[in-house]
Design brief:
Shape: globular
Number of helices: 10
Strand content: 15-25%
Order of helices and strands: EHEEHEHEHEHEHEEEHEEHEEHEHE
Helix content: 25-40%
Oligomer: single chain
Radius of gyration: 19 Å
Largest sheet: 11 strands, mixed
Strand order of the largest sheet: 1-8-2-3-7-4-6-5-9-10-11
Number of strands: 16
């Protein structure tokens, strides 16, 4: 198919809404990453997302809404913790997993009795939802397993000819997918870290637990309760190896392994002391800049033809937990202490 290139003009937003209402696929901007949107109430349209991305059929999708009233029929219950979180962090980069409502087809929930819902803060995303007149299922708008897209150009690189349209709303502000928290148990549980940190969830709800798969692999046969819990995601064509240690140890290790095709994935300022090509993904003292720059940097590794990338390990605290979660999956959990 021919993929239309749309802008964020009112006319193009209306055109995107019509495509979505008719069962088509449109890549849309959000504050986190670009999402590949379809009518969340149309199982056939949702199935087309999986086909376009090459996405495993057991990886559930997130439903995007623009108003709280749209929760009716999407969820069967709104727990008190969900109301507390929504009051604090919606619209924003937070997905809340709740009991599934009757309107959600199995294609969205992948057999689970729950569904993740979020209200994006990006005004264009909410305008597209309103133009479509339906909630939208929207995973990241990339080929499954590759780094998530933070610009419309990234989407086109992966999805041109596979979807009906890409709507360019500029670069994504956050740069990592939303935080996912389940409120279906006695205590809210973090399933995927993001810009809304565990500390922020705890402030709204009083407590939070962290699912083991945030920092480790799912057990064999264990079903993913959220996107982003699978073994390997966000991977460039290069093999990524995470190096955990001091700045000096990182530079020494890289310089001792400066073979052909090796790149450093480092923080700003590290490159001056490196003897290999390097790509920066943020400032050491600014976790938000690391979140913003990581996926673009991983894509640059592929564009540069890197064979191996030695990634400087971030601090897994606050938003850094989300950066580390994406890094370890891009590396297939290859983390080395130096």
């Amino acid at each position: 198919m021919k993929t239309q290139q749309l802008t964020s003009s009112p006319e193009d937003i209306r055109a995107a809404g019509e495509i979505l209402r008719s069962g088509g696929l449109v890549a849309i901007p959000t504050e986190t990453v670009y999402g590949l949107a379809a009518n969340a109430l149309d199982g056939k349209a949702v199935s087309a997302i999986f086909a376009a991305k090459g996405r495993p059929q057991d990886n559930p999708l997130i439903v995007h809404i623009s108003r709280l009233e749209q929760l009716e029929d999407i969820v069967s219950e709104i727990p008190e913790d969900a109301l507390s979180l929504a009051a604090q962090y919606w619209p924003g980069p937070l997905t809340i997993v709740m009991p599934k409502g009757k309107a959600i087809p199995n294609e969205v929930s992948c057999g689970l009795e729950t569904v993740g819902v979020r209200m994006p803060s990006h005004p264009v995303a909410r305008a597209i939802i309103d133009a479509a007149g339906v909630p939208l299922a929207a995973p990241s708008a990339n080929l499954s397993g590759s780094p998530s897209p933070t610009t419309a150009a990234h989407v086109t690189d992966d999805m041109d000819g596979r979807i009906h349209a890409v709507l360019d709303g500029g670069e994504c502000a956050v740069g990592l997918e939303s935080t996912v928290v389940s409120v279906c148990g006695d205590v809210p549980q973090l399933l995927r870290p993001g810009a809304v940190t565990p500390e922020m969830i705890e402030a709204a709800c009083g407590s939070v637990s962290i699912n083991h798969a945030v920092l480790s692999e799912l057990a064999e046969g264990e079903q993913a309760a959220s996107p982003g819990m699978k073994y390997k995601h966000y991977a460039p064509t290069a093999r990524v190896i995470i190096l955990r240690g001091s700045r000096e140890a990182y530079i020494d290790y890289c310089n001792a392994h400066a073979e052909d095709g090796a790149y450093a994935l480092c923080f700003e300022g590290d490159g001056a002391e490196l003897k290999m090509p390097y790509i920066e993904y943020g400032r050491e003292d600014d976790l938000l800049s690391q979140a913003h720059g990581l996926f673009a940097a991983l894509r640059q590794l592929s564009d540069a033809g890197a064979k191996v990338a030695y990634a400087r390990c971030c601090t897994p605290e606050g938003v850094g937990l989300a950066v580390y979660n994406r890094l370890i999956r891009s590396a297939g959990f290859d983390v080395r202490d130096i």
